Amino acid sequence: MDNTLYLLAGSMDSAAQNQQRLAKNLSNTSSPGFKEVFTRVESETSSGEIPYSQNFLSFSQGSVVSDEDPHSFAISGDGFIEVVKDDEVAYVRSGYLYVNNNNELTTSEGRVVQGIDGAIIVPQGQQAQIKISEEGVIQAGERELGTLKLMQFSEPHKLINEGGTFWNPAKVEANVDKDSRVLQGHIEKSTVNNFTSMKDLVANMRYFETINKVTQTVDRSWQNLLQNGR
């Protein structure tokens, strides 16, 4: 038996992984700060072998738009805001900020926003007065509460996506970002193109179905050959 079925099985597995990638992109077309996941061939192979491909993130700046919501924020530049939940550090570029029951500034997902000196505490009754400067300085009325811990990465493509718009630094070194700007009342739109992603999803699904049919045909041919050869 040649390696036809092996190649077909590999192609089906690759198509299935691609389908997951495309579905993830499509489900995040409206997620603030989401970065589209691409795939690329990492190595050329000889005839009869399956090319090795890998997913990667492009951290190109998404469109930053005003939504006139004082809870929203976006980063203009390459920076990230540091957040913590259950002692796990993650980074985010856009979203919505609120105050939890401990008076800590958090994301809408409940991750505690980190300032240069730790969690940012908002005095009781001043939640509606929060202002964020472009330099990341947090104020409630005339009182300064702290400065956002704004970081950047020399190799952002190595960050691990935790789902949605949060990234785990893993072993990637973070450095203080002095160039990016924090824009309150703005959102960084997802870099996913809804139309293109839907088109690619349908095309990949059809490709998977075609490979599946070919695999079944080849398998039946081998079964017939084995039976007739007895």
Word description of this protein:
This is Flagellar basal-body rod protein FlgF. It is found in: Bacterial flagellum basal body. InterPro entries: Flg_bb/hook_C_dom, FlgE/F/G-like, LlgE_F_G-like_D1. Belongs to the flagella basal body rod proteins family. This protein is of the alpha+beta class and 230 residues long. The chain has two domains: 4-55 and 192-222, no CATH class; 64-188, no CATH class. The chain contains two helices and 19 strands. The strands form six sheets. Strands 5, 6, 9, 10, 14 and 17 form a six-stranded antiparallel β-sheet that branches. A four-stranded antiparallel β-sheet has the order 8-7-4-18, with no helix packed on it. Strand 15 (160-161) and strand 16 (167-168) form a beta hairpin. Helix 1 packs antiparallel against helix 2 (194-228). The mean pLDDT is 86.
| C-alpha end-to-end distance | 15 Å
What is the subunit organization of this protein? Answer: single chain
**Uncertain ranges:** none
Please state the average pLDDT score.
Answer: 86
Helix content: 25-40%
Number of domains: 2
Number of continuous helical runs: 2
Percent of residues in β-strands: 25-35%
Look at the helices and sheets and give the structural class.
alpha+beta
Q: List how many beta strands DSSP finds.
A: 19
Radius of gyration: 24 Å
Characterize the main sheet. Answer: 6 strands, antiparallel
Compressed to H and E, one letter per element, the order equals HEEEEEEEEEEEEEEEEEEEH
Overall 3D shape: elongated
Domain Flagellar hook protein FlgE/F/G-like D1: 74-140
Protein name: Flagellar basal-body rod protein FlgF
Keywords: Bacterial flagellum, Cell projection, Cilium, Flagellum
InterPro entries: Flg_bb/hook_C_dom (IPR010930), FlgE/F/G-like (IPR037925), LlgE_F_G-like_D1 (IPR053967)
